[in-house]
């Protein structure tokens, strides 16, 4: 994998780059649609490529491990072939889902014992097991196994958790050195910075993580309920200690405004379930603000979903029609909303990249953030 910076904004820390992987190039900053179980909900792979124009998608190690299982994915020749996706894929480590979805999980130095949220069966993830699963899945970018502390956490808990995450990282690296790739291309490991919202812990974690020569670095634990101001402060701090010549990935964030603000702080990569999850519940993100399409005010609004929209659904369907579909509980409504929102997120980072390159990002960002937070 290779990362090349193409431009940097003079009035912020925003960067535009190109990330090259075995399955193609990624123009950064970038948003990655979440394909939890080898599927971005309600969206065909063809739509992801041709309409949404996704350059990379994310898969969830925990969910793919439980079903269909690594044997089936390996038998298909890896996740790319299994789901018919020939562009880059990133997988998380499974750690966040183990902590958030599993009842009665037990965390020790060795790893985490947990019960499946599907059938209650018992399982165990260690750093080595996470690497083995991600090796079998075959993503281009894989994440180190970490613990994501809840918010709020005590200083003592956050420090102990961070220290263990650092020890687990070395075990991930050691396992990868001993076990060759399975599908004829190299996988890139991204370590994860933790430390909750404590400045000294985040600094220590960023410095420790950066001491390992990896292809990129991630910032974890900042989409777990903390106020946005604290998220931005931690992102700003961490980015100042991570290498400038490597991509920075802020995990699980967030709203369109969150994304623009973090691009301004030096983050390159994002993922979030928000465009699809919120879309399925009737929240439409547009260039002029946020729409709750279920509201009666849209009942006779025959205008496009977004006058600046670049997805086919923006020109094919009106607000009134989409509201009708939600009122009638038609699945097509959820599909249209998901398609629109994903394309909007990709359009937004495309625009951000253009503004970084032409030197107008900071002023454009300030105008856009205000619009993006407006309820229409």
Strand segment count = 17
- Note the total helix count: 15
Question: Which overall shape is indicated by the principal axes computed on the Cα atoms?
Answer: globular
Kindly state the percentage of residues in helix.
40-55%
The major sheet is characterized as:
5 strands, parallel
Q: What proportion strand?
A: 15-25%
Class per helix and strand makeup: alpha/beta
Strand order of the largest sheet: 4-15-14-13-12
Estimate the mean pLDDT confidence: 96
Runs in which pLDDT lies below 50 for 5 or more consecutive residues are none
Radius of gyration, in Å, reads 20 Å
Describe this structure in words.
With 376 residues, the protein is of the alpha/beta class. Helices cover 43% and strands 17% of the residues. The strands form 5 sheets. It has a 5-stranded parallel β-sheet with strand order 4-15-14-13-12. It has a 4-stranded parallel β-sheet with strand order 5-6-10-11. The chain has a 3-stranded antiparallel β-sheet with strand order 1-2-3. Strand 8 and strand 9 form a beta hairpin. The protein starts with a strand and ends with a helix. The mean pLDDT is 96.
